[in-house]
Specification:
Blueprint lengths: L15 H8 L3 E3 L6 E3 L7 E4 L14 E5 L5 E6 L1
Parallel strand pairs: 1-2, 3-4
Antiparallel strand pairs: 4-5
Pfam family, one: Inhibitor_I78
InterPro entries: Prot_inh_I78 (IPR021719)
Protein name: Proteinase inhibitor I78
């Protein structure tokens, strides 16, 4: 079951529940702890999307899109 935090949404793709549980509410860094997920353990096909940044609209079902807030905390995770 994914972590449920008010104001944080998740959607999109088979297997997304596992990534949602691992990433939501955490920051990306060099190692794992209660508040950080190690970047090297992300799937090869991923992108981190900052607030107000532009990204392509191409759809790649295997690509994990990780949306973070201004402080780098994961707020949304989806494939596409």
């Amino acid at each position: 079951m994914p972590l449920v935090v008010p104001g944080i949404q998740s959607e999109g793709g088979a297997g997304i529940d596992a990534w949602t549980t691992k990433l939501m509410g955490k920051k990306l860094g060099d190692g794992h702890n209660e508040t950080t997920f190690a970047k090297q353990d992300l799937p090869q096909e991923h992108r981190v999307i900052q607030p107000d940044s532009m990204s392509t609209m191409d759809f790649k079902p295997e690509r994990l899109n990780i949306h973070v807030d201004g402080e780098g905390t994961v707020k949304n995770v989806k494939f596409g």
